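Anyone up for a design puzzle?
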């Protein structure tokens, strides 16, 4: 007799459930294991990399920039009046003196006004001489009247004194004495009036002569101006030096203000450096500098001027030399300049990386595992110099870091060095 089989379906469902759970667990474990496996680090040839060691100690902050030697004493000569270039007796490159004629201009209008001013001056001087002669003659006539009045007054006084003596002796009547005294008093007053008239006439004459003299001085000043304009048609150097530029030609018409020539003293030069705008913010007047004239020697100098604004990303910095320049130094010679900003006594620093500016947070590859690998680390940069930069955090002295441009490997946290 067959016995019925019970519980078989339940066992099959249990076995299937256990198998599914086990398979799911295996899949989860495999997934977690794959996630834990680090991706393969890309290889990079070590010989192509710029690797430096982080140091600690004194760091000299400097900025560098190219530049040129330019004369300190430069005179730009411009046309004082309208004119036409008639002759050019000097050529660029020659040595000149202050009175050396560089070129000659012509302008009929300037010549005509100079002649007119001279004629007006001569006429004013003639009028002054004529007026002075007339006034002197009139003053002499007035002086003669003063003398006559003074003589009449003295004569009347003497007559009155004589009549007083005669009246005491009873020789003449009292009425005659009174008449003598009256005539003496009238003569004295008349003499005084003539003296006052003479003094007022002399004062009036001086005023008239002063007015005429002022007109003469005005004409003389105008003539001097016209004469200078006429003489300025012969353009002179003005200073001793070398004629550098003469950008005009014979027959050319020039207007006032047109640059005619450029004269410089080549023995007195300065360096005009072009410092990058981001580095020039700390440069101030008085800082020491070193100029390389590319002749095998360097010359010490001092910053004497910092331009107030930037041009095309650079700031012009003028450096005066504290030592004689080497032979061969001349205007427009290309030079390289280094300006010392400050000396930091004890800081952590490294050579300047290819990317990164002062006071920035960047990522650099630091060597690990005895230099076989490199990992990216965040680095806080501080003050910078021409060749070095301060490390505020992220690196320690003795560690080696890659300073090359690693933008192609920036997506990897780790690289392998070969």
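Challenge accepted. My sequence:
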């Amino acid at each position: 007799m067959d016995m019925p089989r019970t519980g078989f379906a339940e066992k099959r469902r249990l076995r299937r459930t256990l198998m599914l759970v086990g398979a799911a667990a295996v899949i989860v474990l495999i997934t977690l294991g794959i996630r834990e496996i680090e991706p393969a680090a890309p290889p990079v040839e070590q010989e192509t990399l710029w690797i430096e060691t982080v140091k600690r100690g004194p760091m000299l902050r400097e900025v560098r920039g190219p530049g040129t030697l330019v004369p300190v004493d430069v005179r730009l000569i411009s046309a004082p009046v309208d004119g036409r270039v008639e002759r050019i007796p000097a050529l660029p490159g020659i040595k000149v003196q202050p009175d050396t004629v560089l070129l000659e201009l012509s302008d009929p209008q300037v010549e005509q006004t100079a002649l007119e001013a001279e004629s007006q001056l001569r006429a004013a001087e003639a009028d002054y001489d004529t007026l002075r002669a007339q006034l002197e003659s009139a003053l002499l006539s007035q002086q003669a009247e003063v003398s006559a009045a003074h003589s009449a007054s003295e004569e009347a006084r003497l007559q009155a004194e004589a009549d007083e003596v005669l009246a005491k002796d009873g020789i003449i009547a009292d009425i005659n004495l009174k008449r003598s005294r009256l005539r003496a008093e009238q003569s004295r007053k008349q003499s005084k009036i003539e003296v006052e008239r003479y003094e007022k006439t002399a004062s009036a004459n001086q005023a008239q002569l002063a007015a005429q003299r002022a007109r003469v001085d005005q004409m003389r000043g105008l003539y001097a101006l016209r004469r200078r304009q006429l003489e300025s048609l012969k353009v002179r150097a003005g200073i001793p030096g070398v004629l550098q530029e003469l950008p005009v030609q014979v027959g050319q018409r020039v207007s006032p203000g047109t640059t005619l020539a450029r004269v410089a003293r080549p023995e007195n030069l300065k360096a005009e450096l072009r410092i990058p705008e981001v580095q020039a913010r700390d440069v101030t007047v008085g800082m020491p500098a070193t100029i390389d004239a590319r002749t095998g020697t360097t010359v010490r100098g001092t910053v004497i001027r910092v331009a107030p604004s930037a041009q095309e990303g650079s700031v012009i910095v003028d450096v005066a030399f504290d030592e004689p320049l080497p032979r061969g130094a001349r205007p427009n010679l290309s030079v390289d300049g280094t300006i010392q900003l400050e000396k930091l006594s004890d800081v952590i620093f490294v050579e300047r990386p290819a990317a990164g500016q002062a006071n920035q947070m960047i990522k650099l590859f630091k060597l690990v595992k005895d230099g076989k690998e490199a990992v990216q680390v965040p680095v806080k940069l501080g003050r910078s110099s021409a060749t070095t930069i301060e490390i505020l955090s992220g690196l320690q002295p003795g560690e080696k870091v890659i300073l090359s441009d690693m933008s192609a490997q920036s997506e990897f946290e780790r690289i392998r060095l070969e």
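A detail worth pointing out: Residues 109-228 form one domain.
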